[in-house]
Amino acid sequence: MKNLKLIIVSILLLMGGMLNVNAQDANDILKKMDDVMYSPKDMTGKTKIVLIDKNDKEKTREANIIQKGNDKRIFRFTKPASQAGIAFLSLPDDVMYLYMPAFGKERRISSSVKSQNFAGTDFSYDDMESKLYSEKYTPKLLESEGDVYVLELTPLSQKSSYSKLIVKIHKTNYYPTLMEYYDRGNKKIKIAVYNFIKVGSYWNAEEIFMTDLKKNHKTKMIMSDVKYDQGLSDDEFTVRKLKQ
Amino acid sequence: MNKLSNSIIKLKWPIVIVVTLLTAFLGYQIKDLKIDSDIISSLPDDDPAALLYKNIGKEFGGNDMGMIIIETDDVFQEDVIGYVKQITDTLRITEGVSTVTSLTNVLDIKGSDWGIEIGTLLDEYDLPDSRDELISLKERVFSKDMYKGTLVSEDGTSTLIMFTLLDGVDKQVVARNIKSKISELDIPEKLYFGGLPFMMNDIADLIISDIVRLIPITFFLIALILFLAFKTTRGVVLPMLTAALSVIWVLGTMVLFGFELSMISNITPIILLAVGSAYTIHVLNRINATIDTDRKQALIKAMAYITIPVILAALTTMIGFVSFVFGAYLEIIRDFGVFTALGVIYALLLSIFFVPAIISALSMYRNAKKVKRENKKKHTFLNDTILFPLNNLLHKHPKHTLSVWGLIMLLSIGGIFLIEREVNMAEYFKKGNPTRVTEDIMQEKFGGSQPVFVVFEGDIQSPYVLKMMIKTENYMKEFSAIDRTQSIADLVEEMNDVMEEGKRIPDEKNKIENLWFLLDGQDIMPQLVSDDLDRAIIQSKFASTDSKVLNDFVVYMDDFVEKNSTEECKIEVTGMPSVYSQLDKSLINSQMSSLIIAIIMVLLIVGLMMRSLIKGVFAAIPIIATISILFGFMGITGIPLDIATVLVASVALGIGIDYSIHIITHFNHVYKETGDLDKAMEETIMVSGKAIVINVLSVAAGFLVLVFSEMVPLQNFGLLVAMSMIGSGLGALTLLPVILILYYRRIEKSNFNTHK
To answer: Could you give the ipTM of this predicted complex?
Structure first.
């Protein structure tokens, strides 16, 4: 009897140890992914947003992006003409400003609901937020298949509209190739397919293709003219600059 | 005719085999029979308002809107808000649900000193729990039209959770799923389920329950009456068999041609059981009455005699049903008319081919001696208590009888002017039915549930169109039955307000385009404006179900559209008031046209058959009198004309005329042979009268079963047809003979005078 207990205890310990190893690994992998995605000091570029509805009808928007670190960013729309000049400034701690050229005014905006979609795309404010994944999720390594690791990410915040994310991360370069989003009913609701290319010394998500499985609506975000580490100053990310 | 009868008997086995195979084949199809409870889809495409309503529903998702109401003493309590969130979350993750809107997740645009807050009314992860928070929530809710009376009733006791369904899902399955998931939440408040998905679910349940409960009752009742009348197994089995086969064939044919059972055609089986058995009854009756030592010859003789009258009887009945095809507004009524008429054809074919075939195939002949004995038997309950006294009455007091009928008719014609019409679908459910209860709550607390849509076509982002929308909304709200309206223009005004430029539509298009940026991608947008920004709608609800108010509103809006709709901004109005108003108009038209078609066709057929128009008119008098009484009865008792009761007059005409035909042909036959008016009438009453009494009883009993239906119009339909059957039977047995007696007495008198 004593032996049996001993055996069980050792098995449990062993399993715990394994879990620990697993957690270590998963954390490691996720941190490496964060490094790849968020390591540039700053970035400028152009983005083309293609919205595809369920009848495959497309609408295109274009914007210039400048970004510093993870938490300062300006999105300035250039196309279509009706939205040209509308600009969006994100600052740390969820502070956001919107500039409307037709009014010549900026307003601070707060979106209390992170699950709302950003400007008609299939990306929610939550998805657009460039907060480190390792700070938002607890990872678990599900498997290692071919050239990717498959991680399951569970949100730390109770407020997340997702129950989990399944992420595939490239084994050698550590960029994500695929993310699947599950709703609170544990149903897959969105899929993002990533395509990374090397720009200078960084990996850049040249294309993100997001599909909303429920609405059968798709968004393609294509980056171009990407330049890194040009020494952008904090002054570029002020309300005054937003209005210019 | 003898030839036909001979070949039927020769081909008895092939006929029996073909019928068996066909029944097996068509019966097998029934497994795929579906129930169509989607009332919206039955709206006709050739009515512009109905077509627009269907399309708007599809384009903006309004037709698939469902709602759950929580009724409590005060919505603004911590636990009630918690239940709203529970239901909202459950709906959100239910398969087939597209969007959910409730207190806990509804879009809210707040302007403040420091900027705009776009978000939800409540933070769903930090729901209000203190008294202060709940009070300020209440103030906020009651300060905005978007919430007050829309999401929370004005008395603060009920709140709505609305949802839309994804395209192409099975609405009934989703509705059922939602109901079971919500009931698992064990919410201790009163919940109501409303909207089309739930209503369809309810209707489908009612249709199934009607079929499952009523068909066996009808079957049993008619079988019982047949047994009492014929007192033989054959007399029960053969009529019921042909009726049952015709039901199976019709349902199978419906499946083959891709039709579904609707809330009207679900009574087709019951009607066919009642009507379809009649033809076999006539056939059997004639076979029984035919005396011949060679039983096979008796059968052939009987068939030769009865085939034509039975075809005529079926033909007139068919006309009654087919007459709906031309005047009906709803497709379900047209389909009902066509398939019931088809069922009548099936029953007819089975009666004249299958019945003699199976009798000779199975040697179900009756003993000739027994037949003779039975035919001699004169003293029966029916003869002594009804037919003899009736015959005496007719001969002694023809004028009094006529006056009594005249008096009743006069009363009825007065009643006709009191007839009401009912088009509101909620009234079709019995009191206490969940759908009806929910409708009542919606009516009482949320300004009704009947959607009204005003569609705008043009550049929706132009100040002109948006201002026109606001103008339209203000105009609509001046009408008593419209409480509140919602549109993209309201949202633009609100956004403009938070940009500190006032609650109005900006004069510059580029400002509108800028404001649009924040609205893009919000869940509510697809419900208000098309993707291409060329169409937008005002959504509203209509608070009255009164036909007059509905019609007034249609006129009121038409006037506005005429004055304001332009190339640049095309305006159209649709919604339940428009549809109901059309349905209301169509009830009268449909009633008139189907009745006129039926009367003309019947007069023609009977006149041709008798080779005398005056006799055709005589035959029609009892049934026309009955129909007047029917309408008078509806007027006096307050049974309204609705999608089902509008069918009664033509059905009654088609079936009821048969009784007159029997009386007139029989009378003619004997009067020609004997020239004795009294004797001819006596024989007619004693022989054909008997058949009519049995026939009326069995058909009326069949229709009366519908009184147990779950749907009010079907209850009324059953009651009224049964009443009309009795009325037209009585008419054929009293009014018609009296007319014939008086008519022939005059002829005899004038003949006598001229001979002198």
So the answer is: 0.80
